[in-house]
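With this grant's support, we have paired protein sequences with backbone structure tokens. One protein thus recorded is set out beneath this paragraph:

_____
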Amino acid sequence: MKKYKWIIILLNLIIILAFYNYSIVKKEKTLSTAKLVLLELAPVSPKSLIQDNYMILRYKISNDLLSKDYTKRGYFIVKVKSNNLATRVRVQKNPLPLKKEELLIKYFVKNYQLSIGAERFFFQEGQAKKFEEAKYAALRVDKSGSSVLVGLYDKNLKFID
């Protein structure tokens, strides 16, 4: 029985590591191949009460969604302008229908909080002041609607380094 116990533990470890590595590869692919989209930020406290090295982000495209009838999972359908700024066209439960010039961004709701998976922006300690001027969040969004936060931009659409 001891031999089987170690085999089961080893198999579980391999499965966990394979899943973890798959998710890393998927995010790296999104970072390298997905479309850059700038989403306007909605007002929110610029600092966490617990730590001072990250910001909690809220997006203007989701401002009125929680006050309406919504699904627990769905998609923001956005149009992206030539300067990469995205504006919400509609919200829908399924990825289709989708017009040629539209892009999907997945969302989900948990504990009455809407998330697109990119609500926290981490920065080095002592750098909070320069990020207080952030007006846009830059995300890489793939064709399935998955997104990765890649940085913040100011009101002049300049990357905040």
In short: The radius of gyration is 19 Å. The mean pLDDT is 82. The beta strands are 35-40, 54-56, 73-80, 86-92, 102-110, 113-115, 120-122, 136-141, 147-153.
